[in-house]
Specification:
The protein is an all-alpha fold. It contains 19 helices and no strands.
Length: about 400
């Protein structure tokens, strides 16, 4: 017997939240039978069929919530190719750091620390897999306030000079923001304004800690996530009008930040040095100058040509962060542009694979969380590549 359209729509929404395809058919069959039985019971009580259908669906609760509860029970299998790529990239990074560590002062000490951090990262990855990811939606406000408190506390404890340490909680913000957007969806223009307001506080904290890279990451990620949610119609507002509000308000806020920043002499001087590091080759433009000179002497394959003006010192001794922030510059000069191109292609393949996985998500929360994680990684990767090309408008956020 063919089901009414409302029941079909309800079942389809539930199905989209269940990621494991093999579990979908038996689960939906059970829900279908329950809806039909409930509808028939209501009709026997004297209720007309249309009303009975609506009441049966209403008693089953929100299909998105029902689907997510079932998704927690029926977990999908992990994506082994993506996990394999992650493991290969991790081992590749550690191998390179070991090789460079033999050539620089305290290099092996830093390598052992990186091994420890990599082990902790693996533990976090495993915990994230087994923990229910829907907590991003349920407890998004609590986690949001906790991250804000950690950022403020870290800034107070370490000081503004330790921008990287204080920025670690803010790097998690786009993922939590995705959960907040999911929770506030269907609340119209009020929900849209609330989402924008919650994004301003972490952005201001990034500005306060002088971490421009994290500021750019937060602004781009939040803007993209909100654009995606509006395009999907999840806020129940007029798309074109709401997108106009979003981008116009973002342009105003970012313009105010930019002009406030550029009014400071130090910021203007820094911008000049970013575009032309040779203006101050021994001070603030030193790193940019070293990177550009060594890259200009790099070959397609093999070690680059000698660079005049630096004596016999190797690049690992001249460039701070040769085994971390600027490891790609070191590898390009040491082994050729072929390494630079190869690493870009590897990371592009990794990001593409992640995007394809994200597009297959039917769960609303799953789509948003996947998008947030991919954006965070992709922006980190982009700033890393740009910085290792000698353009230091934003400091690199290392990927290891």
């Amino acid at each position: 017997m063919q089901l009414p359209d409302k029941m079909v729509e309800y079942l389809e929404t539930v199905r989209q939240q269940i990621r494991w395809k093999k579990a979908q058919a038996p689960v939906l069959e059970e829900i279908r039978n329950h809806l039909s039985d409930q509808k028939d019971a209501l009709i026997k009580d004297g209720i007309d069929e249309e009303t009975a259908i609506c009441k049966a669906i209403e008693e089953m609760s929100d299909p998105v919530v029902v689907g997510e509860q079932l998704d927690r029970t029926h977990r999908p299998r992990p994506d082994w190719p993506l996990l394999a790529m992650t493991a290969i990239l991790l081992l590749f990074g550690l191998s390179i750091q070991f090789m460079i560590g033999l050539d620089i002062h305290n290099g092996m000490e830093m390598f052992y620390k990186q091994v420890i951090w990599s082990g902790l990262a693996i533990i976090v990855l495993l915990v994230a897999y087994f923990v229910d990811f829907t907590i991003m939606g349920k407890y998004s406000w609590i986690i949001y306030l906790l991250l804000i408190a950690m950022t403020i506390g870290g800034s107070w404890f370490y000081g503004r000079g330790y921008a990287r340490l204080t920025a670690i909680p803010l790097l998690l913000f786009p993922t939590i923001f995705a959960g907040m957007v999911y929770r506030i969806r269907n609340r119209g223009y009020g929900g849209l304004i609330l989402c924008g307001a919650t994004a301003i506080i972490p952005a201001l904290l990034s500005l306060f800690t002088h971490n421009w890279t994290v500021l750019a990451l937060i602004c781009l990620s939040c803007l993209t996530i909100l654009t995606y949610a509006l395009a999907k119609g999840w806020f129940n507002v007029r798309k074109l009008y709401s997108l106009l509000i979003l981008y116009l308000s973002s342009a105003i806020v970012l313009s105010m930040m930019f002009f406030t920043l550029i009014s400071q002499p130090y910021a203007r001087q820094r911008l000049q040095v970013v575009f032309n590091p040779s203006l101050e080759p021994t001070s603030s433009g030193y790193i940019g100058t070293v990177i550009q000179r060594f890259l200009s002497n790099s070959r397609l394959i093999g070690e680059g040509l000698p660079v005049n003006g630096y004596g016999q010192y190797p690049l690992s001794h001249l460039l701070p962060g040769a085994n971390s922030d600027f490891i790609l510059t070191y590898l390009t000069y040491k082994f050729g542009w072929i390494i630079f191109i190869g690493i870009i292609l590897i990371f592009m393949a990794f990001i593409t694979r992640s995007v394809l996985m994200g597009t297959r998500q039917r769960s609303l929360l799953g789509q948003l969380v996947s998008l947030a994680i991919i954006l965070t990684f992709a922006i980190q990767w982009f700033t890393f590549i740009v910085s290792n090309s000698g353009f230091l408008l934003f400091g690199p956020l290392t990927l290891h």
